[in-house]
Design goal:
This protein has about 600 residues and is an alpha/beta fold. The protein folds into two domains: about 170 residues, 2-enoyl-CoA Hydratase, Chain A, domain 1 (Alpha-Beta Complex); about 270 residues, 2-enoyl-CoA Hydratase, Chain A, domain 1, CATH 3.90.226.10. Helix content is about 45%, strand content about 20%. Strands 12, 16, 18, 19, 20, 22, 23 and 24 form an eight-stranded mixed β-sheet that branches. A six-stranded parallel β-sheet has the order 10-8-7-6-1-11, with helices on both faces. The radius of gyration is 26 Å and the shape is globular.
């Protein structure tokens, strides 16, 4: 009888817990639906200020998944903003008579440097309207300062901080962790600079890796200094010295060295906004947030019979469908094929923001680009990263555009097969035995080390794929394979460096790529259409809700250390030969 009550009690507890989880998911879904339904146009009053604050990560295009907009612990909604909508809103504000200026209220921006470059260039174009841009923050990171540097006035809180310290790139190494767990990372690669495997077999950067990082980071930093120098009218050498000698830290330093125009509290900034907009001192400044202003974005006009397809390829490259955050070879290939066979589509712009991934999936996408290029122009626009597999899918295009601070190249391949035999034997007490009908029937198992013969087999396959990769690049870029191998070897380049060595054709943004596509297709009036077609909100919720919850709570527990967990997790689940960039580049 006692056992019976235990079973009944356990069942009741399980039922209650399941009910609570379902209730939480239900609230999230309802909140998401309500949030997605709130798409009413926002009224912009005369003499308004466009209030620009970036409180959420900036993605390539705005997601339709309401879960992406929710702060799960509080169930508050924060509008997910895509770069596409941000640029469109700033462009519209330029000619909107009700918008008198932009107020940059930024302390942090969750975006790569090329994305920041796109927004910064849009702000520079906005200034051609003779409208003002005013920037204020309590803390300027280097990324936010780079954006703010184009403002007419830069203000900082009197007790605030401005970071101007130079760029750095740090790599986490897991060799020691794997040794403690008695896990061996069995690496097979091609490319002197292909350092994606280094974190698992070394405890510090190799000489080749240090050389390439020093080169591309220096190139990005040089562009940063040149751009700030031009905007703030300060000699580049002086800016280098300010950072190198750490002359600026607090607000007073920032003003002394002319990185900021004055120290002000927010009430003083608001008072100036009132003066600039002709607002009475007793009244509030009329403003509209960027997130709200985006709601008024309308689909671009143009001739529906002459279309340019904008195909977004963002995230890790994998086989299968993928989603808005990953490049599934099936989904992207289908979109390219649809654009190719649609007679109304006259040109294609492929927007690539990817560190790479599966070499096989990359080749599947490359094939569709190659076929499309034969019948209509294909232009690539590179975002923050278009490296390794990201470059693989780009190299067949008619022309490639990149920002100066885009990370690209990394032409190389590798494979990692973990040997976990000692981990299972010594740490968990698990042993394995079995039967096989052929010598290599269990090739790739993690329960034993590779034999010398198996290493040679895999190395031969890696070499073959690298040869295919360099041949694809050579054909697409009209170079010799020997030259591609010389600048390849897994080496990472900045956009500026890639322009010099021929991996890209021009430095420019998305609009430049679109204009180039229109010119090649001889179009003057055209309609821009986006692919892949995004899932409707309800479908997006049910297809990704569980994954979003898991990801959120893991991030909540690990904080900034989540990136290292993700990197190690990704390495352990690699399947097949990889064309992947070495690491995540973060410039703070």
């Amino acid at each position: 009888m006692k056992g019976f009550f235990k079973i009944v009690f356990a069942s009741m507890v399980g039922f209650v817990l399941s009910f609570l989880v379902l209730c939480i998911l239900g609230v999230i879904i309802i909140a998401g639906i309500v949030s997605s339904a709130d798409n009413k146009d926002v009224k912009v009053l005369p003499n308004s200020v466009l209030h620009v604050a970036f409180n959420t990560p900036i993605v390539e295009r705005t997601s339709k998944n309401p879960l992406d907009e929710l702060n799960l612990p509080s169930f508050n909604s924060s509008k997910n903003m895509g770069l596409n909508d941000i640029l469109a809103a700033i462009k519209r504000a330029k000619t909107d008579d009700n918008i008198k200026g932009i107020y940059l209220d930024i302390s942090g921006i969750q975006a790569g440097m090329a994305t920041i470059e796109e927004i910064r260039n849009a702000l520079i174009d906005f200034k051609k309207s003779k409208k003002f841009i005013l920037a204020y923050s309590e803390v300027y990171t280097q990324g936010t300062y780079y954006l703010a540097s184009v403002a007419d006035k830069i203000y900082i809180n009197p007790e605030g901080i401005l970071e101007f310290t130079g760029f750095s790139s740090q790599v986490a190494f897991f060799k020691g962790t794997l040794e403690k767990l008695e896990i061996e990372a069995q690496v097979i690669k091609v490319g002197t600079y292909k350092s994606a495997v280094e974190p698992f077999i070394l405890d510090k950067m190799s000489a080749a890796n240090r050389q390439q990082v020093t080169s591309f980071l220096g190139s990005m930093y040089d562009h940063f200094l040149s751009s700030v120098s031009s905007a703030r009218h300060i000699q580049k050498d002086s800016l280098f010295a300010i950072a190198n000698q750490l002359k600026v830290g607090n607000a007073l330093d920032a003003v002394t060295y002319k990185l900021a125009d004055a120290t002000k509290y927010k009430d003083e900034v608001i008072a100036e906004l009132k003066t600039r907009t002709g607002t009475d001192k007793k009244d509030d400044v009329k403003s509209v947030s960027l997130a709200s202003y985006i709601k008024n974005n309308e689909p671009g006009s143009g001739d529906m019979n002459n279309r340019i397809a904008m195909i977004y390829a963002s995230g890790e490259i994998t086989g299968g469908e993928g989603d808005d955050e990953t490049i599934g070879s099936e989904r992207i290939s289908r979109s390219i094929r649809k654009a190719r066979t649609d007679d109304k589509v006259k040109a294609v712009v492929l927007r690539v923001n990817s560190p790479g991934g599966s070499a096989l999936a990359s080749d599947v996408i490359w094939r569709e680009i190659t076929l499309t290029r034969k019948v209509k122009p294909v232009i690539v626009s590179m975002g923050d990263v278009a490296a390794s597999g990201g470059y693989y899918i780009s190299c067949a295009a008619d022309s490639i555009f990149a920002e100066p601070n885009t990370i690209t190249g990394s032409i190389g391949v590798f494979g990692i097969i973990p040997n976990m035999q000692k981990f299972f034997n010594n740490k968990l007490g698990i042993t394995f035995d079995g039967v096989k009908t052929a010598e290599h029937a269990d090739l790739g198992t993690v329960t034993r080390p590779l034999t010398d013969a198996e290493r040679l087999i895999i190395q031969k396959e890696v070499n073959r794929i690298y040869n295919s990769f360099t041949k694809r690049v050579a054909d697409g870029r009209k170079k010799t394979q020997e030259y591609v191998n010389e600048i390849g070897q897994g080496r990472v380049w900045s956009g500026s460096e890639a322009l010099k060595n021929g991996l890209v054709d021009r430095l420019g943004n998305i609009d430049d790529a679109i204009r180039s596509a229109a010119k090649m297709a001889k179009l003057k009036d055209y309609k821009l259409v986006s692919y892949p077609i995004q899932k409707d909100p309800l479908e997006a919720i049910f297809s990704s809700g569980e994954d979003k919850l898991k990801e959120h709570f893991t991030k909540l527990q690990l904080g900034e250390q989540y990136q290292y967990y993700k990197q190690l997790q990704d390495a352990l689940r690699f399947t097949g030969i990889q064309a992947r960039m070495p690491y995540t580049i973060t410039v703070k």
